[in-house]
Write a structure and sequence with these properties.
Organism: Alectoria fallacina
GO biological process, one term: fungal-type cell wall (1->3)-beta-D-glucan biosynthetic process
Number of strands: 12
Subcellular location: Cell membrane
Strand content: 15-25%
Helix content: 10-25%
Structural class: alpha/beta
Pfam family, one: Glyco_hydro_72
Distance between the termini: 23 Å
Largest sheet: 8 strands, parallel, barrel
Shape: globular
Oligomer: single chain
Number of helices: 8
Main location: membrane
Radius of gyration: 18 Å
Length: 334
Amino acid sequence: MSVLKWSLLLVMSLSSQAQIESITIKGSNSSMHRMAFNCSFIQGIIYQQPLINEDLGSPSENTASAPAGDPLPTLSESSTCAQDVANLSDLNTNLIRSYAIDPAQDHSECMASLAEADIYVLIDLTAPGYTIDGRNPQWTERLYNRYTAVIDAMQQFNNTFGFLVGDDIGDSPTEISAFIRAAVRDMKNYIIYKGYRNIPIGYAASDNGSTDGIAQYLACGDQHTAVDFLGINNRGWCESDNYDTSGYRAMTSAYFNYPVPTFLAEYGCLSFGSGATEDFDEIAYIYGNMTTAMSGGLFYGFFSVNTSARYGLVTTGGQENLDADNSSWFSSYL
């Protein structure tokens, strides 16, 4: 059994929000190799309506708000968060991930509904037009203001699980990595400066079958500037795949001795144009063979989309309804 130098442990908060335990960093734990999550593993789902165009370019220089797409605001005609909580609970969900938070919006009602159902939220600090560009990496004041605005808006909620400073920006272990780590450092310093609780900061990396490059660099050295956790994106297990062909076995081996907690930040079947479908066989491995290295994962995703990618656990249209086939297969594993 491998040992993590740091673990994410649950600490009871006395906040007036619904009584849900907050996630925080609590030193080292020599007996654990996974993230403690209410005595269980992460059983998560990506909760984000796909943005109309994920390469929208740069919004106004004078605002830290994201483009339309925030799934959590209270004051939004398009928000279905409150009605979706029951469906998320039926799917045995304890964590959702949302990509495009608008810090100008009020999220209190949705976050309270999720907290009452013991569901946490992993929040990306990025948004379309507000992320480090892997082709021309820069860590700018504009990005800093966007990231800190999201932290200001969401730190008040006990069920804010943690923040991601980026998602699959690039695989270079050199220039790009330094900018990602600068964002981690500055967000940790900002949280300390503001006196907020010690909310974990992490990054979501693409799975390349090893910890070489970005993953290794982000976790090494000074823990004050290193990631608190690492999410791994692997949506390569479709109906014709298995533990080996999907790359999941190699991923488990690669992260067995990784120095901070890891989990699947996205898993599922990405099958544009191939006709392959999701059969959910990977879930048995995520919560079986892979628990030596991974602390569970987040399935992509909750919402069905009218594309050839063929994923989603609900059908949309006025009110969200669980897709009978997909949701029954998914929940039977959890």
